[in-house]
Structures are given as C-alpha cells and as structure tokens.
Amino acid sequence: MAPTPICIRVPATTANLGPGFDCLGLALDLWNETTFTLEGEGIRVRAKGEGSGLLQTDERNLVARAALRLFQAVGAPLPDGLTIQAENRIPLGVGMGSSAAAIVTGLMGANAMLNNPVSAEHLLRLASAMDGHPDNAAAAMHGGLTISTNLGEGALALRLGVPALNVVIVVPAIHLPTQVARAALPREVPLSDAVFNISRTAFVIEALRSGDLTLLGKVMEDRLHQPYRLKLIPGGEEAIDAAHRAGAAAAALSGAGPSIVAFATGEATQEIAQAMTQAFEAANIPSRSLMLKLSERGAYFVS
Asked: CA dihedral in degrees (59, 256, 285, 30; nearest 10)?
C-alpha cells in the first residue's frame, strides 16, 4: 500500500445542461479537498464545510463506501485505521454533483493508496454504478465538458475542452432528493420531444465547446425532464425567466435541481444572481448564489 497521506481535489459539476439529459456534464471551479491517512483503528471520517454535522463519520460515509468498494473490487484487504479528512465546498443534494464528487474522491483515493491498479475507465464504471449514471462522475474525473453513456460493458465518456465561461448557480433552500426528481419523470415521451432534445443537445455541445453564448441561448431548452421537475421547485420557472431578463444567455436546472444554473458574460453575473434570488424570495424560498467559472481540470492529487 502506498505511503500516506494522499490528498485529492475533486470539482463540483453541473449536468444535463438543458436537453442533454443524463449524458452531458460540466466541471465547475469549486472543489472538495480530501486527505486519506492510515492511523489508529477502524474507519473515521472528519468533514468540515458543507454538510459538516450531517454526514456519516464512519464506513457509512459515501467517500468511505467508495474507497471500500475499490478495495473490494481489486481483492485487497480492507484498510484498518483509514482516516478521511474532508474540506467540503460543494453544497450537498442540490444538483451540483456532491454525490459524484464523494464517490470519485473515495475511488481515486483508495486507488492511489494501492498504487493505482485500476484504470481511469474502470474507475468511471465503478463510479457510474454507484451514482446511477456517469454524467457527473465523468465531468468530476476528467474536467471540461463530458459526453457520457452506459454501454453493455460499462460507462463510456468523451471529454471536450471548454473556455472559462462564467456561470451563476442559485441554490434554493428546497429539499429535493434525486429519487423524488426522477420519480416525477414520465415513463414514455412523445417522439417529437425526443427529436427536440436530440437536435438541441448537439448544438449545446458545440456552443459550450466554442464558447458561443449566443448559440447556447438558442438551444438550451428541454422537454424530457425540466417541465416535470420545475413543478417541484417553487420559484424555479420564475428564476429561469428572471435570469434571462437580467442578461443570462441561457439558464436551466443544474442536474436534477433544485439549483438553477445560468451562463453569462462577467459583467452581468451579479445582476443575474440577484434577479434569480429575488424570484425565489417572491415564492417565499430563501436561496444563495455562487458565481463560478467552468473548470478545464478534473480531479487531481495535491502533492
């Protein structure tokens, strides 16, 4: 087993990006930083920042569960005295990839402790299996814009570079578990809606790759998930409309929500954030805003 400590930084992500349901993800310049050491007995997790006081502090913690999954996958003995110290900056359960970040952290940290016996492709397959789909995990691992899908043999991802565009994410104080957001979706959709999304997804990819915000504003519409999920988010539709009025080129649910992500030029970010928070306030929902940039970099180890 490799000498410790091992420190890894993993970014927040935003997925779906309007029509790219379950296949598009973007890395954001907001990072969890986690250190793995071997000391004492058992498994302990110490977390600061987002979610501190709420997260499990033993082997039930998601980072620890992912680390143990990697040890089991390679047939290595489970580590005794594993201590995980996390500085969490990604808000939990709001559509910014906190679960995927925790899973990627645990898998990559454990892999490094074992001197990296598992390939990046296999790590993504494990992460996708744990998270349920690969969109957030792929973006967290690889950075930039990722296109991903599940094949018979596991997850497949392609990374594209993106310019450092500005994003505003407004996080309303609404508890919307991913399971509830998925349960709101119809089991079948009209063919016209499927074609609507497929055509726009292709343009979203090109708009983000090239940094063309004008094009992005024309194509970041969705008919497969947003109309159903926004009904669960008081003030959500109004926040998207407010973002557009305040100068956002495009706005959409971040992942399954309840957060809203808006893309804009740097001069407009403050006005967009204020407009979206006011829209939630009008629905009696407190919210907070984050002004970020896209990240070309994915998860990496700190030396």
From this structure: 60
